[in-house]
Every structure is written in structure tokens, then in C-alpha cells.
Amino acid sequence: xxxxxxxxxxxxxxxxxxxxxxxxxxxxxxxxxxxxxxxxxxxxxxxxxxxxxxxxxxxxxxxxxxxxxxxxxxxxxxxxxxxxxxxxxxxxxxxxxxxxxxxxxxxxxxxxxxxxxxxxxxxxxxxxxxxxxxxxxxxxxxxxxxxxxxxxxxxxxxxxxxxxxxxxxxxxxxxxxxxxxxxxxxxxxxxxxxxxxxxxxxxxxxxxxxxxxxxxxxxxxxxxxxxxxxxxxxxxxxxxxxxxxxxxxxxxxxxxxxxxxxxx
Length: 264
Ligand code: ADP
Known about the structure:
It is found in: Cell membrane. This protein is α+β, with helices and mostly antiparallel strands. The chain has helices spanning 26-61, 68-99, 112-121, 124-129, 149-165, 197-200, 212-217, 224-234, and strands at residues 3-12, 15-24, 108-110, 133-138, 145-147, 172-180, 183-190, 239-244, 248-256. It is built from eight helices and nine strands. Adenosine-5'-diphosphate is lined by residues 158, 162-163, 166, 190, 192-195, 203, 209-211, 215, 220-226, 249.
């Protein structure tokens, strides 16, 4: 830790003394560094699909176009990479709106059980294909809640899609809603590959992934958890992740039942 250091020596009635004042300058440096890293990451994440698209276009130009089957495959790759870039840019825009507090949170009364069931339904195809079972449990004391449905749906989509992505076929996902203090608490738990201890601390950072190649091949942008955290924060709640390698992962977030107007 670096800090500016000021020492004042003096004599008081009680005797000689020294007052030491420490001012943290590392906070500012860290912010600047993380900003630089972010720009470097964005550039890299956009450059990768662009480079792939370019090489496939060149291959088409160099003759692959004459072979319909090959050409179809190459166009397919280029399209997938384009989709990834669109997802990435959409996620980035969303993050920047949440960062600058420009995101308008419009809340509506929501039945929690319906919301969770609909979230699982959105993945029914993948779940069936991968033989992953989803169990939804809502404690009886859970009440309806005011929340931005689109945004909380996005949080749930990110968490459920992660649970599916990082859980082997035949796995199990449990979505639970209960109450804690004056908040609704929702958790999404899987029995998948888990996350190594050393990565846990950084897991909510933008673009942080345990395994970049795996995340990419699954279509991940590395922004899902950061977006989830910003949305939950905008609702006045908090989010945390617990995980054990080879055992599974549990992400829990809270949404306060009552909130000051300013947070909305
Ligand atoms: P991504 O788009 O890569 O999934 P996220 O921000 O959603 O990005 O997650 C960041 C990283 O955290 C992932 O790349 C993955 O390594 C890890 N991760 C997230 N959820 C899980 C989970 N349920 N099980 C195991 N690893 C996970």
C-alpha cells in the first residue's frame, strides 16, 4: 500500500506526542489502472471476433466460395462471431448506463414464484437437451415485491445460464427464494464444476473468467456477473457467490422489500 505520510510532532499538556496522518493514494491509482485494463479488455474482446471474421472472409475470397458446403460453414462462423460482438456491445452499453446511473429502473409488483418459473422455462430447451434438472422452491413467507422485471429477469438469466454452462450433463440446479432481514433472498445453486478458491475474489470483475477459452466457446462475454451485480445494486440489494471446485456454485442476491425513492 502506498500512501502520503504526514507526521506532526508536538508537545501537549499530557506530554510529547506524534500525530500521524495517512492518506490513501492507492485507491485513485487502482481506479485508473482498472480503467486502463477495461479499455484493453474491450479492445481485445472486440478484436478477437473481428480477426476471425476477417480470416474467414479471406478464405471465401481465396476460393472457398466455389465450394458451397465449405462456404456455408464459413459464413456460419462469421455470423456466430458477429452475434458475439453484438452481445458484447449490448452488455457494454448496459453496463455503462448502469455505471452512469442513467439506467431507469421501473418497478412493478411481481409474484416471485411466477418470475422464477418463467426464468427456468426460458431455458427449458437447453435443460432438456443436457438432462439438467431444475428445482424451484419458494418459502411461504415470501411476498410480492416491487422490482424492475426486465432487469431482474436478466440477472436470473445470467445466473441460470451460468449454472447450465458450467454444470455437466445430468446435473442439478436449485433456485430458492426466501426472506432475510427485510429483503427477498434468491439463490441459484448448481452441482457443476465450481470455481477455484483463488479466483473467487475477482469473479465479479468485468471480463474476469476462470477459463477464458471455455467461457468463449460457451458464448460468454465475461460480463454476466458484473451486470448482475450492478442491477442488484441499483435495486438496493447485494450479491455474493460461494463455490467449491468440483462440487458446485451458489450465487445469492437480496432485494430489499422497502426502499427509498432515490435509489430507483
Ligand atoms: P461468462 O460470460 O464468462 O460466463 P460471467 O461474468 O457470467 O461471464 O462469469 C464469470 C466467470 O465466472 C465465468 O467465466 C466462469 O469462469 C465463472 N462462473 C460463473 N458462474 C459459474 C458457475 N455457476 N459455475 C462455475 N463457474 C462459474
